[in-house]
Amino acid sequence: MDSQDALVDEPSYLRSWSGEPILMTAAHRHDDLEINFVAGGGSMLYLYGGELLEVEAGGLAVFWAAIPHQLVASRAARVHWLHVPLDHFLAWGLPQPLLARVLSGVPMITPAARADASDPAKFTQWAVDLAAGDEELHRIAMLEVQARVRRLALAAVGDPAHRYAGDDPALRQAVSMARYIARHFREPVTVSDVAAAANVHPTYAMTQFRKVVRTTIGEYVKLYRLAEARRLLVTTDLPASQVAVAAGFGSVSRFYRVFTDACGTTPARFRRGRGL
To answer: Against a cut of 0.90, is the pTM above it?
Structure first.
């Protein structure tokens, strides 16, 4: 887990590891499909997609990590993490409704009561297989991961998330602001707009948001716009100029500048790299 007090773009490559989670001191993003399995202890609490989502012990969560996310509380003693690069995920040929669901920022979460009893052994084995230098073991592990995601999608009907029932005032205000951003980032968004969503003064809103999310409101809005631009680039054939408008960037030139700085490549090269 990241420990930097800043927004972080992680490198994208297939990886699996486990251990005790460390709270994230800032929201971050990466293009991978992220899979979390809480193997022991208590639950984990994520700020994701403008909501607080709880993954309980024995539970499994799958989400597209391009959406800003942050682990803000945890009682878990052991968690397995698996990151699947976006190009691998797209190559699975998943049903369009499932693909649209994940890329639109709707997580899939299975509670412990509906979990697969074989998950602890599977995640342990996948970590071993993916760390090995054997190409066939690598291929087998990826086929099994794909099958697990497909099964999870079948089970994740209705409300996909266990929303946090706690009443921490600072978290509640930050979530109200994050939720507003998640719903309105495509529009011009001001600090006053975001503050009004939490019924607080703009100056106080900036302070509280940074205290909880550890970044500015403007940077958080930018992360959402970048995630939407990535989604449109890999799921549509819209030209970059229309992607810029649809994702909420004020101009095409700003879109190119922000996207290139954040992704290390142009929108066109990003799209080509995903086979589109």
So the answer is: no
